């Protein structure tokens, strides 16, 4: 990250408490992550997603990078993030999985974020496997029906 001392920050924004569950898993697998924000939409009727987004964006300086993970492409959370966050230093990824988030969070901050995201997306796709089919195919190859 060559943005003159900027910080790479992260936002996980989901419907319900999925974001907190992801954070819990991250804490177990890679340890506590600095500069991580969560939006758990529609959990508290007194909290506006729009307000939460604005409060987070106020903590992002021009030299920072904000990588946003949302749960559903075309979902209300992603749509609101897009409305408020179309800036050159905000990178929005929708339809995440845990390996994708881990890959991006553990990436070298000196690496260009676009390259990090592209590589992480390819790696994350490889993590989605129908295991039953994989095992069946392996058994056929080894002759262990």
Give an account of the 3D structure.
It is a single chain. This protein has 145 residues and is α/β, with parallel strands linked by helices. The chain has a single domain, classed as Phosphotransferase system, mannose-type IIA component (Rossmann fold), CATH 3.40.50. It has 6 helices and 4 strands; from the N terminus they run βαβαβαβααα. A 4-stranded parallel beta sheet has the order 2-1-3-4, sandwiched between helices. The mean pLDDT is 93.
List the helices and strands and how they pair.
Layout: E1 8-15, H1 18-29, E2 36-41, H2 49-57, E3 65-70, H3 76-85, E4 90-94, H4 98-105, H5 113-127, H6 131-142
Parallel strand pairs: 1-2, 1-3, 3-4
Q: H/E series, N to C?
A: EHEHEHEHHH
What is the CATH class designation? Answer: Alpha Beta
Unreliable spans are none
Q: Whole-number average pLDDT?
A: 93
Specify the structural class. Answer: alpha/beta
Helical region count? 6
Supply database-style keywords:
145 residues, Rossmann fold, alpha/beta
Short description:
The protein is an alpha/beta fold and 145 residues long.
